[in-house]
Structures are given as C-alpha cells and as structure tokens.
Amino acid sequence: MGFLTAKQFSEKWEISERRIIKLCKENRINGAVKNGMVWLIPEDTIKPSDKRSKISKYINTQRRIMIVNINNEIGYSLIPILTKQGYIVDAMYSGKNIDKEKLETMNIWNISYKNKEVLEKVLIGSEKYYDGLIIIDLKRLNNEELENKKYFIKEFSKKMNCESSIVLINSLENTEEKLEKKMSDELKKHIGLRINSIDITSNIKANILINYKEIAEDAMDLLINFKNTTGMSIKTDGGCLEFDFNGRTKNLEIGIFYKFINRYFNSLNKNSYMWSASTMLEDEWTEEPAEMNFRVINLEAANRGANLERIFIFSKSKIKEFKNNKTLKIYMQSNINTMFVDYDEISKKEPELLKIVGSGWDGIDTDTLIVDLPEGSKERGYISINKDEVQNAYNCFQRLKTYAKDLKKILK
C-alpha cells in the first residue's frame, strides 16, 4: 500500500489541504504519519465523516481488528504491522503472561474466547464493528474448545461485513479440524467475509528460533490481499532455525544459509556490532546473486547506523592484485570499517588465530556466529550460538585488530 500527501488527498476528497492537515493533527485520519513537515496518508484511507453531521453517529469509519490470544510473539509482532496500515487494534488474552508495555495503548480484555460468556462482555451490545479477526492458537485444543472456537467465530462474524476477513493462526496440532474449510461457505453466503488460515509446521520449543514477524506479515497478507480467496490454508515453518544441544545448526546448504544471513543482517540497527574476519576465498568475490545481495545487506546495515568492522586477511604480495577488486572497493566506500591483516605475519607470529578464523565468519554482538565452511564443501556454512565458540571467535577478532591496518591506505 502506498501513501499520498495531504495536497493529493485535498484533490481526491475535494476539501482544503489545511482541513486535511487539521484532521491529521486531531488523529481523525487512520494511518496518517508525519514525515518532516509533510503528512503522509495511506492511499486507500476512507474520508472521515463530518462530526457536524448527524449521520456520522450511525456510520463506522474506523478500521478495527480484533486479535484473540495476543499474548505471544506473533500477537506482539502483529501490532505495529496493523497500526502502520491504519487499523485500530482490540485484543483478548487469558492468563498472566503478557507484555503490558506493548499493549498499553490498546483496548484489551483479559478473558478467554473459549468461554461463551465473553460474547456478552465483549461483543453483544457493543457498537463496535470489525474489519478483521485474527485468532492465534499455538497449543492443541480439545473437542469442547474447538466447538467454542467455532461458536465464537460465528457470533463475532455478526460484527463484520462483506469486506472483512478472518485469519486463523494454528500450530500444526490444531489443523485437523480445518475450521477455515468447514465455515467458509456459510460465512461467505451469509456475510460475504473470508476465512483463511496459517498452519505453523515447526514445533515451538526452546532450541528452535521462529521468525514471528514473518508469520505476522503472512497473516497481514491473508487479511487484506486475498480478496476473493476463502477456505484456504497455507503452511509455513516460520523461517525456523534449529540448534542442537551444543548451540549449533546443522551445516546449511547455500540457499538456506543465505536466507538466514539475510535475516540476521536485516535485524541489525544502530545498537548492533558486527565483526567479521575472512580469508580471500574465491567464492567471496563472485558475481552470483547471493553474494551480490550479501554485499548489499552489509551496506544497508551500515547505513542504518550499525557498527560494522571487517578484517580481510591476505598476503602483502596480493595487494597489487586486489587494488581493483570490485567488492573491496564497494566496502571501502561505505560506512564499514575495513581493515587489512597480513596473512604471512599472522602465520609466523600467531598461527593459532588463522585456525580459529578458518574460512571466515561473521559475528553479531557476542551472541551469534555465522561460520563459512571450507571451499569445496557441499554445504555453505552453519550458525552457532554456542557461548564458548562465539567468545573464542570474538577474542580472536580483537587480537587480529592489533595487527590490522586501514584497508583504504593499503590499497590506495
């Protein structure tokens, strides 16, 4: 979805730009954000009703979403995505496990949707209408709970219209009932709304990392983009990354390896510190799309303000050869601190450092190490959160820095 300026909406709505800016300041235009001196408004925003008109009392112009079982990482990830799109978010949760800071500005009820009394407390008699409903169930439901869920959806749908959408986010254990298929015809015929689901195939447990933000983004796509699709279920592993008991992934093939590199690098911000050491392997300087993209995400992270330091290890005899290297030129012209360490000097003085570097690695803060495998391996590399391995590499990097020189001066 794109954004238009207040001036563009002035022509679209046939009211003055000054009036639109006033509405933005009064928070009466959903999704409006101020970028410097300019107000930007989502291009599909509905024109606010005139408060002076009596009809405004009967027309709901707000885009409202209900999230059920919001107290989990998927629920928390949905909040900024929905609010950025101009939705007002209401939510329900049960139990005490909740991050109040993430929910303090929302309407929220601490009550389980599985209890039919919730309908009287939250829905029946309420003047609110909803454009969407998202239900998150990450634990197995028994038969009674499934029936209550079905009943809740039917009753809640009375607060929705033909443009509305329901998204069910389930663990794989809860996919047998396929409520999206069982209820799609009935909801489509009587109301016109859509119901679809996301089934998470990965087990959510301690030694697996799930990309909850990506699941939330998929839910958003189902909510607003599949205008004529209902009764559909899609499966996702949630971008899972599984570690063994030593805190390592298995050796990853090229595509999967770069996928997770992208995830880690895209999460870097001004508080992040990335430290890297690499020997001059041939595959590091190819023009393949994966390597080209790797260079781009390095530069983007540096531009976001992340502190990136890279040490390139090669012999002085190769300085002339690398003076016109495209990759090194790109790095040197960026905000990345690029350094040179003489391979021959380290080989003589502290050869154990070269053993630790191996084929190279990227360290993120002091938590994660992304390790290259030797050239000729079938797999590309692995990721480690093993504290000893990460700390050993970090200490090695700091030691290498004592030998390092500015790469720009070396290759000038």
List keywords for this structure.
Rossmann fold, 412 residues, 22% strand, 7-stranded parallel sheet, 3 domains, alpha/beta, Endonuclease, Chain A, single chain, globular
Q: What does this molecule look like?
A:
The chain is globular, with a radius of gyration of 27 Å. By secondary structure, it is an alpha/beta fold. It has 3 domains: 3-52; 64-241, NAD(P)-binding Rossmann-like Domain (Rossmann fold, 3-Layer(aba) Sandwich), CATH 3.40.50; 251-410, 2-Layer Sandwich (Endonuclease, Chain A), CATH 3.30.870.10. Residues 55-59 have low confidence and may be disordered. The strands form 4 sheets. Strands 6-5-4-7-8-9-11 form a 7-stranded parallel β-sheet, with helices on both faces. It has a 7-stranded mixed β-sheet with strand order 18-17-16-13-14-15-19, sandwiched between helices. Strands 1-3-2 form a 3-stranded antiparallel β-sheet. The protein has helices at 6-13, 17-25, 73-84, 100-103, 117-123, 143-156, 179-190, 212-224, 254-266, 289-303, 319-322, 326-332, 343-349, 351-357, 387-401, 407-410; strands at 3-5, 33-35, 38-42, 64-68, 88-93, 107-110, 132-137, 165-171, 194-200, 208-209, 233-236, 241-242, 273-279, 307-314, 337-342, 361-364, 368-372, 381-384, 405-406. It is built from 16 helices and 19 strands. Helix content is 37%, strand content 22%.
